[in-house]
Design brief:
Layout: E1 3-6, H1 12-21, H2 23-27, H3 35-39, H4 41-53, E2 58-63, E3 69-79, E4 82-89, H5 98-112, E5 118-124, H6 128-136, E6 140-145, E7 155-161
Parallel strand pairs: 4-5
Antiparallel strand pairs: 1-2, 2-3, 3-4, 5-7, 6-7
Amino acid sequence: MPELKRLHAGHAPAVLAFELANRTYFAASIPDRGDDFFDRFTDRYNASLAEQEAGVCAFYVLVAEDGSVLGRFNLYDLEDGTARLGYRVAERAAGRGVATMSVRELCRTAAAVHGLRTLRAATSHGNAASRKVLTKAGFVPVGSASPADLGGESGTWYQRDLQP
């Protein structure tokens, strides 16, 4: 059974493999990270770990039994009991409820571990799968997301109030 784990330095090779293996798949529904992301992966990864250590963000990976990464589930801009949620799931795990299950688990973790009361997530109008995941995980639409929020596309902000 896959397990949602807090990101640590030892996950770096599996995270890079996940990002490389799914780059084309992700680019079909969200803006591509660009070559610079991969060229500077180690620096960016270490910066993310530093942000997590500082309490600004909290990063999680969904790890399969074989140690490979099936998904990334991130909480950004933790402040005043709120955070932004971002996630991506490997093509090989898509359509099986993995994202919904992991988002629900992260909602529980966000409240219990990080003391968060509200999560927000934005998704583009063209990303039906992400809209479905958010709705199934208890998020409700709360307004328009601008192209600046979504890497050049328009969409919708969703929000979920977390139970204590």
